Amino acid sequence: MAKKPVTRIDPRKELSPYLNHEFNQQKNSRKSQAKISASLPSLQAERRRSLRRRLGLIMSVSILAIAGLGYYISPLANISTVKVIGASDLPIKGIVKASKIKASDKVFDYLFQQKDLSQKLSKKYPEIESAQAHLGHVNQLILQINERKTVGYLKDGDDYRKILSNGKLGSTAITWTKVDQDKPIFVGYNKSSSLKEDLNLFNSLPKSFQNQVKLLSGNTRRKSQVILVMKDGNVIIGSTVTLKSKLKYYDEIKVKAGKNSLIDLEIGAFSRPLTSSEKKAYGVS
């Protein structure tokens, strides 16, 4: 019986792929472990830095909070002086009194009570539209007063009172030297109702015409009558009902009439020179 040929197998050759794969796996594992070992100190250092930043932030906020609380409860936070700015004709002491600010009050309390402060001052002084509180020096409170716009002046005896943009009168009387000469003067208005009506009429007129008006007189023959003394020396008599619509004729009549004329727009539209007594009555020279 013939012998079968024997195939010789080298075990190392057969196992070499597996051995090489295992060797590579071990090699890669050692590299990964080496990388992880190398990154651990960096990761730990970054964590320490992050922890220090958080601790620093917490400590800073805590220190500021403690310092702020310490300042608030200390006498340094008490109001020492009050400075009022923006009040042109109002009494400074009166404003401080109306605000009810006391020396024992805390400065910061008023920084968060702006609306309440404005209401107190506006109630006492109609001239004040709003007020803001600001911190001056360490314990100085500054009151910034914002006044309402003045649209004219009411003659009150020998003095004058501001007519404010909301239709109310100023609380204090001022002298002629403090009157804005560009604003109209309302003279002879003994009733607030007639003043309000004529003021509403004046505010409805064109701005270019308003700037030419020097004086409005309440000394009229009829309730519906309105008298305007112009800066150019002319006097206009009109009706509160029709004056606005008839103003389109004023410039043309003024050119023909000349200076110091009475221009009547109440019934029709005509003019004549002012008499000496009328000039004196209306303050025209």
From TrEMBL:
Organism: Lactobacillus helveticus CIRM-BIA 951
Predominant location category: membrane
Membrane spanning residue stretches: 55-73
Annotated GO biological process: FtsZ-dependent cytokinesis
Gene name of the record: divIB
GO cellular component: cell division site; plasma membrane
Domain POTRA: 77-148
Keyword set includes Amino-acid biosynthesis: no
Name of the featured protein: Cell division protein DivIB
Keyword Cell cycle belongs to the record: yes
HAMAP family in the record: DivIB (MF_00912)
